[in-house]
Each structure stands twice: as C-alpha cells, then as structure tokens.
Amino acid sequence: MISPLTPLDFLARSVHAWRDLTAIVEGDRRFTYAEFGARVERQAAALLQLGVQAGDRVAVLAPNGAMALEAHFAPMRIGAILVMLNTRLAPAELAWILRHCGAKVLLADPQLAPLIAGAGVPHVIEDYEGFLGGAGPCPATFPVTDENACIAINYTSGTTGFPKGVMFTHRGAWTNAIGEIVEHGLTQRSVYLWTLPLFHCNGWCFPWAVTAAGGRHICLRQPDPREAVRLIEAESVTHLCGAPVVVSSLAQYCAANGVKFRNPLRIVTAGAPPPPAVIRAAEETGAEITHVYGLTETYGPHTVCAWKPAWDKLPAPERAQIKARQGVPYMVAGMDLRVTDHYMNDVPADGRTMGEVLMRGNNVMLGYYDNPKATGDAFHGGWFHSGDLAVVHPDGYIEVRDRMKDIVISGGENISSIEVEKALADHPAVAEVAIVAVPDAKWGEVPKAFVGLKPNHSATAEELIAWCRERLSHFKCPRQIEFGALPRTATGKIRKNELRAKAKVNP
User: Fold this and answer.
1) What is residue 138's predicted lDDT score, i.e. its pLDDT?
2) Quick one: fold of 1-170+206-219?
3) Is pLDDT of 118 > 50?
4) Cα distance between residue 223 and residue 237, in whole Å
5) What is the 3-state secondary structure (H, E, C) of 107-156?
C-alpha cells in the first residue's frame, strides 16, 4: 500500500484534473496541461530513441521556457537524470561540467549553442521542436521503484573552486515541492512568473510545485523588470521568486515608474540575506514579501520567516528587520535545523551567540556526484554543514549573520559582514554593498565596503562611514569604501572572493 514518492505523479494528476487549462505561457505560445503532458511524453520518447537509458545524464542549456520545464519531467520519466546548466557560465566552465557529469544528450537553445561548441557531448539537440516531432509514443514501462534514486544534478556556482554536483532525488523533490505549495499558498488559481532561473536549484522546486497545484507557468527568458511588470499585470501573476538583486531591480523599476500592483502578488526571496531596505522597497509596490533560506544542497528553501499576526502592528522598519530573518524550518523539514558551536553543541537562543547552521532530513541532498570526500565533509557528524553563521533569537527564529569565510575578525572581535551591509543598504543612495576583510597593522583586519550607488544618486565615502557610525559600534564600521558595480555569480550572488582579492591589491 506504499508507493514511492515522485514528482511524476504531480504532472499525471494535473493532466488528469486540469487537462484543458493553461499550463505554460511562453511568448505567444500557450500549452494546456494535456499538451504539457504530451510534450513531456514525446521528449522522453525522443531521448529513448537516442539510446538514453536509466541513470544517463541529460543536460539542458536554455533560458526559462517550455523546453526547460518539460525537461523537469521527461528524463526522470525514463529513469535518466536532468542536469540544468547555468546559462551565464563561460564555455570552459560549461565544458567542465558536461565532462564531469558525463552528459549523453544536451538540449540547447540555438542562441546559446556557441557556448557549448566542442563540448564533446554525443548528442546535441538545437532544433527542439523538430526533436519532439520525430518522436513516437513513449512506452509506459518505467515505473519508479526507488524514491531515493537521483533525478537531477545541480552544479554549485564554484566561486571558491571547482563546482560540485548536488544530487536531488524523487523523494526530496516531492517533499520540497509540497513545502512550497503549503508555505506559499499555491493553488490551481496561482499564476507563477519565472523570474528565477530554472537552472538555479531546479527553480527551488517550483517547476514541480506549480505543476502539482495545477497553476500556470509564465516564462520569462531574462529577468527584465520592465517585461516582468508587463507580464505581472497582463497575466495577473500571483507568485514569483528571486534573489535580492532581482527583487531590488523590480522594486526600483516600480518606484521610478510609479507602478503599484493592483492584484495580490507574493514575492519569495532568498539567496544572500536581503537587506531590510530591499524588503521595504518591494512592499511599497503592493507585493507581500516572504523570506526563505536554503542552499542548493537543500533543494533551495529549507526555512521560512513564518509571519506572526502580531508583527503586522509594528512600524515598517521593524517589520522589515524581522522579515530579514531566516526563521524556522519548512513544515516538511520538521525540526531538523540547528545552530551549533565548533563542537556541534547548540548555541543559546540569545540573539547574539553565533554558530553554524546545520540541517538534515528529506529535503537535504543525496550527496555530491562523484565526489565522496566532499560528501563526507559536508555530512560530518550526521548533519549537513551549511557554512553559514547564524544566531537563534529567543523565539527560536534563526538569523544568518555571515558565511564562515566572510566573517571579519578585528582585534579579536567578530564583525558580521551582513550586519554592516544591512546598515549601509539603508542609506537612500546605496543600491548594493559588500563587506570584506582587509589587512590592518594594528587590528589584524578591518571591514572594507564595496558600494554600488543607485542611478542619479551620489554619496561620499565619508558620508557613508558617518552613516554607519550613527548605527553601529564604531569598531564594526568600514574604514574604507570603494565605489563601483559589484561582480556577481551567475545566480546573482556577489563574488566576495574577487572583492577580497581586489582588496589585497588595493588595501
């Protein structure tokens, strides 16, 4: 009476229940759930015709669109494994990933094909519609027998070394998708805008979650704020996800153009902890902001700042400060979340003592593909070690204060780079900011700020340092500020490794 958990059941049910309703909108094309299901079957059949077998890897290099969404079901339909490729990587990085995973087939958008020229994949498909058109029916002889089998490999951004391939399973994807449905209120009436790249943690499991709910996928090839606003209004979008940089650019566009959304819109943000200023700006568009936290290794979100009604009465700045916390585990994660010291003892819930965030449970990865040492290191002591430093507030909500490698230790005092970044981000001229440690003859190291200013705004280093000194202990304030655009990874995270290297050259 027990059947394996698998996201394949989500699509099968929605095809059965919502077959005539719109599932995917991609430009001028619209596909019903019946058509969505049929296209998945044809992709699976076409892969079989190329000789793809259970366990083979099928890579996809494409912007958000029907091909990428369909690939979240078709390879696993025949027991194969999906590898979504980051469209912003360099050719050498893509070639390394394709070699490491041993991809047998690569589905590539024609506009991105030059990035993978000579990658050595046996089968490269650029004419996707022709690929589907040449496929026959897919035999229904591939039942899921092991819910812990790998269905997807997601490669980390690799800012500190070679990327690692995070393995997702049927069970983990099913579990986290249900978590997204529950935590963010997805229903058949939900309209989800793909501002988050589908290659990022399999879109935080929203391809499976939206499909399970019978909602509508609205595809956006690039996270352009103007086009996003047009689609939000034209399609009555109810949900979207994005890193703080995406949310900030959307909020800035709305502020500059007097846009305030008429219909309810929930924005789910994660990635680097969002500054309260970004949260306030997004809420001024009329959207409801939900903050989640996780890693690729946790299928995307693992915790959510679950909102308490009593907080509605607080002033906006205080609400934003609370909303910037990482909160409590998703319902599907149980209580498998800890903040511990170096000896894996839980830190006190005093809102001050920092420790490392540890997780375990159904929505934690199977391991790193073909990398047993990294897998063993990550699961030391039976818990996944995030590398993030956090405090636990008296109410049990966690708040991430830094990455372990980003903490600034000045004169023996730990300075949270995120705390300083939040203070600077509150300045009305600051669009983006990053704090790194620079050597100091007296204190060992001190904070240095890299700041990007908003268009048509200005500020001096002295002004920003004085701003910080009014809000923080003086030893936490940056001694130097350098202005300019900040380098980012392909998923929108600031490349602090590059800034640290730059700071060593120009301390």
Assistant:
1) 85
2) Rossmann fold (3.40.50)
3) yes
4) 15
5) EECHHHHHHHCCCCCCEEECCHHHHHHCCCCCCCCCCCCCCCCEEEEEEC
